[in-house]
Structures are given as structure tokens and as C-alpha cells.
Amino acid sequence: MHASTQLPGKSALFVSALLGGLIFTSCASAPQPSNQASSPIAAEQAASTTGNIAQKADAAPIPRARPQLIKKAAMTLIVNSVDKSIDTVSQIINKQQGDLIGLKEQQPTKESTRHTALIQIRVPQNLLESTIDELAKLGTLNSRNITAEDVGDRLVDLQARLTNLQKTEANLQKIMDRSGSVRDVLNVAQELSNVRQSIEQIDAQLKNLQNQVTYSTITLNLEAAISSTSPQRALGEQIQETWNNSTHSLSGFTVRLLKLGIWLMVYSPYLLILAAGIYGFTRWRRHSPRLTQTSESANSD
């Protein structure tokens, strides 16, 4: 009786343990299907996001570098008064924050009866068009020409070379600071001098190009509208010119006389012989008729 009563208790404990294990196993394995189901969705969302970002990156415009242009302009104007136009050009230059870098004026003369002037102007590049418009109002525009040269690649190349040379200079300076033999120090010093010379040359070229990009050049040719005769000169100027011409003529005549005297001195023996011959011949011709008459009278006697 005692043994039979213990069996049911052991079986109840075994069943309870078995049910607890099943419940624990089901609880532990239950979240796995949800994670497996959510991972493809997350991967698809991540792929979609990456694709949108890539499309936006492809659609975004690539920024272009601003062209570095050297602009030059040339103009020819027909004006009523070249002198007044030159004054007005000076005012325009000051207004446009520019500089006058050249002026060549030709007054009317006997050979050329037209008053002309050639002016070279330098203005900021952003004011080039407005300056040309202001200058065109001075008279009748005969011709206009604008040229532009892109030097962006040259500027980038020079800047890269300058950066590399500066790095080389720094490295050579570090080597110079180290202790070494006199020969090595002299070699490094010579190389450092060459590098610095190259740096100065490239830096000068770079600044020159940048200056040409910043400022544009205008070559302005002014021509008088009506050809005019040479203006009447003052009386004093005419007298001075006459005096200069007369003194110059006198000096030339004196020089020619001196040259003639030298020639006569050199050929004087021949001239004396010639003069003696002419004199003898003349005397002979004078005495020849008397001799003829004397001989004829003697024969008649």
C-alpha cells in the first residue's frame, strides 16, 4: 500500500517538470520568427534609403570652377576734339577706379594733318563693360574688339608647383638644421638656394597672372573728326626758326669753302703749271701778229 501511494507523486513531479520545460522552450524560441520576419524588411528599407541617397548624389550638379580670364579691349573713336576727349577719359578712369598706363599724342604737322592720341587704360575686370560704354559716349565708335584668355589651368599648375617647392624648401631647411659634414651642408645650402630662386620666379609669374585677371586693359585710339591744317605759329617761333635755318646754312657754306680751299691747296702745283701754260700761250698769241707783219715788210723791201 505504501509503495503504490508514492508512484502517483513521482509521476506528477515528472509531468510538471516536462510541462515547465516545454513552456520555457516555447517562450525562448517564440521571438525568433518575428526577428527573422523583420530582418528582410529592414534590409529592404536600408537598400531603398541607400538607393535614394545615391540618386540624389547623382542628380546633384557638380560645382564648376570660375574661369580665370585675362580680358583685353581695343577701341577706336572719332571725336570732335582730341584734347577735350583726353580730359574726359581721365575723369572716367578716376570714376572707374582705374589707372592710365600709357598716352601717346600726335599733333597735326605738315606730314600728318590729323590729331590723334593712343591711350592705354587699366580697370578692374568687373568694371570693363561699364568703362567701355562710358568711353563709347565720347564720339563715334569706329571699331571695338574684346578678347579673353582663360589662364585657370596655368594658375593651378603654378600654384601646385609653388606648393611642392615650398615643401621641398621646408625639408631642406630641416636637413640644414641637422649636424653634418661641411660638404653636405654646402650641397644642401646650394640646393636650398636653387629652390628658393625657383619659388621667387614662380611666385612672380603667379602674381602677374592674378593681376592680369583682376585688371583688364583697354587700348583707346582717338582720332579727330575733321582734318585740320597746321595751326599758325607765333611770330617769335617763326623768327627763331628763320635764325636757326640761316645759321645752319652759313655754317654749311663755311664748311664747303674750307673744303674747297683744301682741294685747291692740294692741287695747287698742277694749277700753277696750267696757269703758266695759259699765260705763255696768251703772250705768244699776242706777239705772233707783230712778227708776221715785220717779216712781210722786210720781204717787200
UniProtKB/TrEMBL annotation:
Residues 1-30 form the signal peptide. Residues 68-282 form the DUF4349 domain. The keyword Oxidoreductase does not apply. Keywords: Coiled coil, Membrane, Signal, Transmembrane, Transmembrane helix. The chain crosses the membrane at residues 260-281. The keyword Endoplasmic reticulum does not apply. InterPro entries: DUF4349. Residues 148-212 form a coiled coil. It comes from the Bacteria. This is DUF4349 domain-containing protein. It comes from Komarekiella delphini-convector SJRDD-AB1. The lineage of its organism: Bacteria, Bacillati, Cyanobacteriota, Cyanophyceae, Nostocales.
